[in-house]
Amino acid sequence: MFCTPFLIDEHSVETLSFVENEFQLLDDDTVVVTYPKSGTFWMQEILGLIRHDGDPSRVQNLGLPQRPPWIEHEYCLKRALALPPPRLLSSHLPFQLFPKSFLHSKAKVGEEPFALEVHLHLSVGCKM
C-alpha cells in the first residue's frame, strides 16, 4: 500500500482525533506541512537531501512508500510511530487539527505558502 496524501479511505475520525490529541511530536522531528498540490514532494526531496548530507543516492533509491509518512493517514501514521528519531514527517492538516503536542515541542515545521500561489498562477492562470 502506498503512503501518499491521496488515499481518501485512510482518513477516519479516530485517526484524526488521535493525531490531534495524542500524537507526540518529538523535539527533533521535522514536519513538512503544505497545501495540497503546492510542492510537497519537492520539499520532501530537499529535506531528504539535507538530512543525508546532500547524498542523492539515498533519496533516489526510495520509492513513494518510503518517503516521509503522512501523519493523518492510518497506514502512514503506523509507519510514523515506528520511525526512530529524528523523524521526517508530512501533513496537509490545518493548524486546528495539527498535533497539539507541537505547541510544547521544539519540532521544526516547514511550509511554503508562496508555492501555492505560484502553482495556481502557472497551472490555472490565477492572478496573484
UniProtKB/TrEMBL annotation:
InterPro entries: P-loop_NTPase, Sulfotransferase_dom. Keywords: Transferase. The keyword Transferase applies. Its EC number is 2.8.2.-. Pfam families: Sulfotransfer_1. One of its GO terms (molecular function) is sulfotransferase activity. Residues 27-109 form the Sulfotransferase domain. It comes from the Eukaryota. It is an enzyme of class 2 (transferase). Belongs to the sulfotransferase 1 family. This is Sulfotransferase.
